[in-house]
Amino acid sequence: MRRDFPHLRCLCFGSPGFLFSRNIAKHSEEFVTSFIINSDLVPRISMNSMKLLRDEVLTLIARIKVPKREVVRLRLTESRLKDLPEGLGAFLFDEDEIPESDFSRHLAKFKDHLRQREEERGYRSIPMFPPGRIIHLHKTNVVNDYTTGQGVITRNIFNMITRNRFAPRDVFTPTHASAEDFNEIIVTKTLVSDHMIEYVRDALGGVAAEFGIDPSTPP
Hints:
It is built from seven helices and four strands, in the order βαβααααβαβα.
């Protein structure tokens, strides 16, 4: 298609991260521009990033020094962690100080099994990337009129009924990014909602307004 339409330009929004090899992704920068919103999960998905997330989660479970129900009950947030004198140290062992346990022993066996299976199958890791030149919209100002409990439910119901007409808007700042910046999954509260089409539309519309661009006007 590129040969038949040399002046073709493509805009991608939240494209999957496992589409192109490094060379093809680099070549596509000439005619493809990808927009990625904040911590959007989809552009970060690849075989390598999923394996990395799996390993990090299992290691994190092994590091927990308090009952798991205590972690869930506290519903840790960044602000609460700041209030703790020990920070994460109150809940997690250092990685080099994980105590011996049934779970840690099973985890070590599991990792050994995975390594052996990859060697037997001749597994070769091929990094994959989202396409084209990447514009990353960082959330630089979070508008949050409610934080917990009933307020969240009330806000969500109101926004749903009014189709977000009166909902406060988050503020985003666009920056150029490298494809390598999206080689791991960032776990946040918005990693799924950052991919939703309505949120993408509002984020891009807000950035366009900041630059005095009318999105309804064809380029």
